[in-house]
Specification:
The complex is a heterodimer of chains A (332) and B (484). Chain A is of the alpha/beta class and 332 residues long. Chain A has 15 helices and 9 strands. Chain A has a domain of 227 residues: 3-Layer(aba) Sandwich (Rossmann fold), CATH 3.40.50.1110. In chain A, the strands form 3 sheets. Chain A has a 5-stranded parallel β-sheet with strand order 6-5-7-8-9. Chain A has a two-stranded antiparallel sheet with strand order 1-2. In chain A, strands 3-4 form a two-stranded antiparallel sheet. In chain A, helix 3 packs across helix 15 and helix 4 runs parallel beside helix 12. The N and C termini of chain A lie far apart (82 Å). Chain B has 2 domains: 183 residues, no CATH class; 214 residues, no CATH class. By secondary structure, chain B is mainly alpha-helical. In chain B, 67% of the residues lie in helices and 0% in strands. Classes of the chains: A alpha/beta (332), B mainly alpha (484).
């Protein structure tokens, strides 16, 4: 009996070591930069972090990231000046761009289309409108020098808060010893990513026992009544108004980037009536016959990103008609 | 409780340690632990249905005594046997088949021109494993009736025999002559047996998690949306279902047999590489062996088996397959599935080739199979896979619709996985899996029978890596045969 237990333990240990080596060799794990909250209360990533984010259901997509001095994933550092033309692109994981190499981001694609323009990408997974407006408010001096600000808005998720509060709990969780261990043992990082550790987590948190029959249920599609939708839209609109009131909003140079088919008409009407400009990329996405999102998740694929870069570039060109090209050094 | 759940991962070592270290003073105490563990294992799903298992256990325990007491009075003994059959088949009839009969009756009347509305169907759920444990308890009464077994007076052992958790919900359907004897006898820890058990458990998990669960989303997608696919995709779907159901059920059986070994108990083999069969008869000697032998012993042979005229033998074969189909589920699709197997089996039987491969495997004395054998395997796989259209489709209309779609859209079209996985990964996985199964084809109970320790270690690591690579956390992890 003792022999069985001892040999089992040895075999399990050796197999785990072999798997750790395999996972490292084939880079099956994903790396993620350290996150922190700066002195202005802005959530960002630790500057100088480089690595490879691995995505895809078979971990087939490897993208290099590079966290610049500002704490965001970009190939360039941000140094806004009066004599340059800069665009700030702010948003969540869609802008953060861990599904593409940092030197081929939406910002870079815009720069390729608008020569001389510098695009500053402030992408951070989980950013909502509160995060975005608070960021602009916190770095007011920089943003005063930036010529155009594009805020990516996912209506369904981004207006749930009326006020910004830094997510200290999540940051603390990422910095906890458990997560540190997970990040150092690549097999654990990989296991966590594919969901195989989920049952273990549920066991530790007690969910395994409270929701044991959940696995037998089919997916339930959440539907809302028109009254519930109206109530939600009103709440989102109130939140938006409050955020604008709290953190400010320069209508002359700030533009929302949104998909009108996924945004409430109430909100769009409000924007139209009150001078909040927006770029609607839904038409461009509808026109194309190619897929615009990655096949395994909802983030934009290269073609989708190309279209986004195109609509933003065209918008900037139209808005600044005096400048057909944007040569370096020219300021409109 | 599912084998592939975190609860089981904790449950098994706890029961194992208690069994060998705490409750090891006597067999009776060990059996009490097995009963408690088995009832917890089953009750984890729904404790209310424990009463059915308990009732089935008590009825057959008492019936067994009565049959033995009247063993020389065949009429009385038969009457007692009927009590067991009526009770167990009554349970099955109520929980599994009642609604089917009512609906079929309503449909039949409707065909005759009368439109009636069914108000008799019951709003009941099918208790997990009911077809398995009722057949197991019935086999006990049958064996006593046929004078193959003396009933046990040890109620504790009998309860443990019926509820033995590794095989309670999906078999193998054990005979009392094999399992009950082991439960009544003293058991001693055997290192080799336990190691073999752990290897089988690992191999079973690979079949379930890497093969069956990874194929499930593809098969579901193709069968649900069959009207939108071309012939190439539909053929792919049913072929993959063949591998899915094999991985799922044989994986379960391997885990069950392996777990039993950890407790010093040997269960019968349930799968012997059926995908390597050279004709349909051989397939049935290798697929779900515990069920096919059950039908053979308790239905086919009592009806005269092959010892009667050719015509009657053919009738017996047809009955066996139709009943076997019906055993799987209360649906005409399963009856058609059984009927098709009868159609494919009967010619083999009439040609006298049904026992031809009973004692040997493909490539018996060679490394590689002959071209003839490969063609035979391909033909058998094609026939069996064709019947799977009925096995997998929810209704007969869907089965025929699926076949019609193949016929009317007979062209190639590349298939895109619903989640965007590369299909080539699955083809490589299946190719490697089949090659490996061919290599180990002579012993289904030893999937890692290699002399070199390093080779074995590499294989263990590769199997675990395979599970990780093909793990899909979005899949319903239940076993297909739980619904039967």
């Amino acid at each position: 009996m003792k022999k069985l237990i001892l040999k089992t333990i040895i075999y399990i240990f050796l197999i785990l070591v072999a798997l750790e080596i395999t996972v490292r060799i084939f880079h099956l794990y994903t790396e993620s930069p350290q996150r922190f909250i700066d002195k202005y209360g802005v959530e960002k990533m630790t500057p100088g972090n480089r690595g490879y984010a691995v995505t895809g259901n078979r971990n087939q997509d490897v993208a290099e990231f590079h966290i610049n001095n500002a704490g965001f994933n970009s190939y360039r550092d941000y140094n806004p000046k009066k004599e340059k033309f800069e665009i700030a692109l702010i948003g969540d994981s869609f802008i953060e761009g861990f599904h593409q190499d940092y030197y081929n981001s939406i910002g870079k694609k815009i720069e390729n289309r608008l020569k001389g323009v510098e695009v500053y990408e402030y992408g951070y997974s989980g950013y909502d409108m509160a995060n975005q407006l608070q960021l602009i408010n916190a770095y007011q001096e920089d943003f005063e020098l930036i010529d155009e600000v594009i805020l990516y808005m996912n209506y369904k998720n981004d207006l749930k808060r009326a006020e910004y509060k830094p997510n200290t709990e999540q940051i603390a969780m990422f910095r906890s010893p458990l997560f540190q261990i997970r990040d150092h043992i690549k097999l654990l990082a990989y296991g966590s990513k594919i969901g195989i550790l989920e049952p273990l987590k549920n066991l530790v948190t007690g969910k395994a026992f409270s929701n044991q029959k959940q696995g037998f249920k089919t997916n339930v599609i959440e539907t809302k009544t028109p009254a519930e939708i109206m109530k939600r839209d009103q709440r989102y609109l109130d939140n938006f108004r409050n955020l604008v009131r709290l953190y400010g909003y320069d209508k002359s140079k700030t533009t929302l980037l949104l998909d009108s088919t996924k945004t409430s008409p109430t909100f769009l009407d409000y924007c139209n009536a009150n001078g909040f400009k927006y770029i609607d990329f839904s038409t461009s996405f509808k026109k194309t016959t190619k897929a615009t999102t990655l096949i395994y998740d909802w983030h934009w694929n290269d073609h989708g990103r190309e279209l986004i870069a195109q609509v933003i570039s065209e918008y900037i060109k139209n808005k600044n008609k005096n400048f057909v090209a944007f040569p370096i050094g020219n300021k409109h | 409780m599912l084998f592939n759940s975190i609860e089981y991962l904790l449950f098994l070592p706890v029961v194992f340690i208690l069994y060998w270290f705490v409750f090891n003073k006597s067999v009776k105490v060990q059996n009490i632990l097995l009963i408690i563990a088995s009832y917890v294992f089953y009750g984890w799903w729904d404790w209310r249905f424990l009463i059915l298992i308990f009732m089935s256990t008590v009825v057959d325990y008492l019936v067994g005594q009565q049959i033995y007491r009247n063993i020389d009075d065949r009429i009385k003994a038969r009457s007692w046997l009927r009590v067991s059959m009526v009770f167990n088949l009554g349970l099955l009839g109520t929980f599994k088949y009642f609604n089917f009969f009512v609906d079929s009756f309503v449909d039949m009347v409707r065909v005759m021109g009368y439109d009636i509305k069914s108000t008799w169907t019951l709003a009941i759920i099918l208790p997990v494993g009911i077809s398995f444990y009722t057949f197991q308890t019935m086999s006990y009464s049958f064996d006593i009736y046929y004078k193959k077994l003396v009933p046990t007076k040890n109620l504790t052992a009998f309860i443990a025999f019926v509820a033995f958790f590794p095989q309670l919900v999906a078999g193998p359907i054990e005979r009392a002559s094999n399992l009950l004897k082991q439960i009544t006898d003293a058991r001693k820890f055997n290192y080799t047996q336990a190691v073999d058990g752990m290897k089988l458990i690992l191999w079973g998990f690979f079949k379930k998690l890497a093969i069956a669960d990874s194929l499930a989303p593809i098969v579901d997608d193709i069968f649900v949306n069959y009207g939108e696919h071309s012939a190439s995709t539909l053929i792919l779907g049913v072929c993959l279902f063949s591998f899915q159901v094999y991985g799922d059920f044989s994986g379960y059986s391997d885990i069950a047999i392996g777990t039993s070994k950890l407790f010093g108990i040997e269960l019968m083999s349930n799968f012997k590489f059926p995908q390597l069969s050279r004709n349909v008869a051989e397939y049935w000697q290798r697929w779900h062996v515990s069920l096919s032998t059950w039908f053979r012993h308790y239905l086919y042979i009592p009806m005269g088996g092959s010892k009667v005229s050719k015509l009657k033998s053919v009738r017996n074969i047809a009955i066996i397959f139709l009943v076997s189909g019906f055993w799987h589920g209360a649906n005409w699709t399963f009856i058609f599935w059984g009927g098709l197997h009868a159609l494919f089996y009967i010619p083999v039987f009439l040609m006298g080739r049904n026992r031809m491969y009973a004692d040997n495997v493909i490539g018996e004395n060679t490394y590689l199979p002959s071209v003839k054998e490969m063609m035979q395997v391909l033909a058998t796989f094609s026939l069996v896979t064709f019947t799977r259209i009925f096995f997998r489709s929810p209704t007969l209309t869907d089965s025929f619709g699926y076949m019609k779609q193949i016929w009317t859209h007979f062209y190639y079209e590349p298939y895109v996985h619903p989640m965007g996985y590369r299909m080539i990964d699955f083809f490589v996985l299946l190719a490697l899996f089949n090659i490996y199964e061919y290599l180990i084809r002579k012993d289904e109970r030893s999937p890692f029978k290699f002399k070199s320790q390093i080779t074995r270690f590499i294989l263990y690591s590769m199997v675990v890596l395979g599970i990780l690579l093909f793990y899909d956390d979005g899949v319903n992890r239940s076993f297909i045969y739980f619904q039967f």
